[in-house]
Specification:
Elements lengths: L1 E5 L9 E5 L6 E2 L2 E2 L9 E11 L2 E11 L4 E5 L6 H8 L7 E7 L7 E4 L11 H6 L9 H13 L15 H13 L5 E5 L7 H18 L2 E5 L3 H7 L2 E6 L2 E7 L11 H15 L7
Parallel strand pairs: 7-11, 7-12, 9-10, 10-11
Antiparallel strand pairs: 1-2, 3-4, 5-6, 5-8, 12-13
Helix pairs in contact: 3-4, 6-7
The structure holds adenosine-5'-triphosphate (ATP) and magnesium ion (MG).
Amino acid sequence: MTVFARVSAVGPQETRRPVETGRAGPTLRGVPASLGTSAGAAITICGLEKRFGDKVVLDKLDLTVPAGQFLAVVGRSGCGKSTLLRLLVGLDTPTAGTIDVSSSSVATQSRIVFQEPRLLPWETVEQNVSVGLGEGRLTPERREKVALALAEVGLKDRATEWPSVLSGGQKQRVALARALVSHPQLLALDEPLGALDALTRITMQGLIERVWFAQGMTTVLVTHDVSEAVALADRVIVLDAGRVTLDIDVKAPRPRERGSADLAALEGRLLDAIFGVADVVY
Ligand SMILES: Nc1ncnc2c1ncn2[C@@H]1O[C@H](COP(=O)(O)OP(=O)(O)OP(=O)(O)O)[C@@H](O)[C@H]1O
Ligand SMILES: [Mg+2]
């Protein structure tokens, strides 16, 4: 599907160009696409700088992400990926520059999922998910929203169980449901599958793609895995020395064919960009 999105929110004139969201066709493995891009937030980052003491982590970074895009961020350890995500969802503040996250909704909501599920062990699965709705008792209305979010991640029968009886992948699905329950316009994922085994990762990647496709929220995924990046994202950026050093569109149609020559070529370009620049020994 081609939509028109704002390329830059600053300057005297707005430039518009068609943006491929990767939503080829009306369904993805039987899941209907969301209606347009109203469910997603547009991101405009201008001259973003983040320092910790003397250390410059993000260095006058500019980035524009159209509403509804699935963006993957890759780069060497310590290059500032998590810092960028934390700034995007408002968990930290920039040293300089601006970040604008806005959507057609009155209140734009952003949610983040980390590598660890960070569940409350003394609360049931449904109570953990309801945390995503903010403070409040588990009223019938909240319970219904929670049930829908749990169904979305394939855990509707586990609502009354304790986190301790769930597998690692199931716990991470609860964390995803907690992020989805408020229908955020921006979903930030910081290596959400990093601690899972290879087979569970593939299942979870399919789940993330389906949820994004169905809900249409703008999604920013930080990952160390370039095959995961090209399998899921519309676009992949490489961060290095606090800036974007490569920005590529992944035009392969969905559902994507893992291991295809096109995706392998993109993986090669990304690995060259990540490792080719460094004078570091790995
Ligand atoms: N709160 C903080 N105080 C001081 N330094 C910090 C803080 N948070 C991050 N840093 C530094 O900023 C740099 C970037 O950290 P960040 O966590 O963003 O990297 P990353 O790209 O996510 O790395 P990884 O791939 O290992 O998760 C690192 O050098 C880190 O030590
Ligand atoms: Mg990180």
